[in-house]
Amino acid sequence: MSDIEMEDGLPYDPDQNPEEKRVLRKEFRSLGKKFEGDAKFSHDDISKALTRQDALFDKVKTTQEATLDSELLLRLTTLSNQKAREMKSGSGAFDIEDFVSRLVTFMGGRKLDNQNLDEDGEDEDVYDLHTPLEWHKIGRNALAKSRRVPVVGFMLGPLSIEQKTRAPVKREKLEKNKAEQTKPQELKEEDISRSTNETTKNVATLEGILSETGPINLFKFIVNPEDFAQSVENLFYLSFLIRDGKVALETSEDTGEPIIYACNQPEPQDYIDGLKKRQIVFEFDQATWKRAIEVFDITQPVIPQRTQTGMRIGNKWYG
Prior knowledge:
Blueprint: E1 4-5, E2 11-12, H1 18-33, H2 43-57, H3 63-86, H4 96-106, E3 116-117, E4 123-124, H5 135-145, H6 172-176, H7 196-213, E5 216-217, H8 218-222, H9 228-243, E6 247-251, E7 258-262, H10 268-272, H11 286-295, E8 311-313, E9 316-318
Helix pairs in contact: 1-3, 2-3, 7-9
Domain Nse4/EID protein Nse3/MAGE-binding: 69-123
Region (Disordered): 1-20, 167-196
Keywords: DNA damage, DNA recombination, DNA repair, Nucleus
């Protein structure tokens, strides 16, 4: 298949010799690796690389090699731009005051006839600030050197710009309050004195009481009319017995009251034979606690009042 001439005159040959393409790619990649990293490159290095790239581009006939060429060209262009930014004139190479003075003279600015002496005793140039300057003279000269259309504000802005530096962030306030900062307490296993053993003991106590009372109204069993917190705890401990199948919860057909009673714990075979566990969400707030005391006329707790125990967290105790 012969080469196909594209619209811009570049040859396109999808059937280019594979070996030729392989060598061309290797050349592009090798040339690109020389300009990777933070190493410093001279203008001569960049110029030689561009000359070599032009020679390689004459052999490009497929899109993949053209992509490598464009990536290399972009990298070299970026480096050239950086080099141009690094170029700075010396302190004595360009005199701003002399430049402005020449501009004023070129635009028809004239000195006054009288001259003044400055502090050093030298003649000081004094210009007539009321005479308009002929800016069109500079415009004609600038148009001869550039095709860019002059815009309004072309000469605006300072002739020298100081680079802004970021002020260091003050951390005085943080360091001032550093002494007031406290390290969070680290909880260890031995710090929590109220462990699972206490829960197990209270659950066993409720089981023994229920086996003695027989079937009883749920609220009459758990409610302590003098202590709402212990009533909640009683319901919590009772839930373990119901979960393990040691206590049954039913609704009385006659009165509709929730009745609980001790029962034999089911065997694993019972669940295989079709016995199913059921879970319910029981809401027990302070309003329900007061309503239960009033409705069921609860005056004495079935479960004796427990001594308030504390729980130690770190080096502090919480009741």
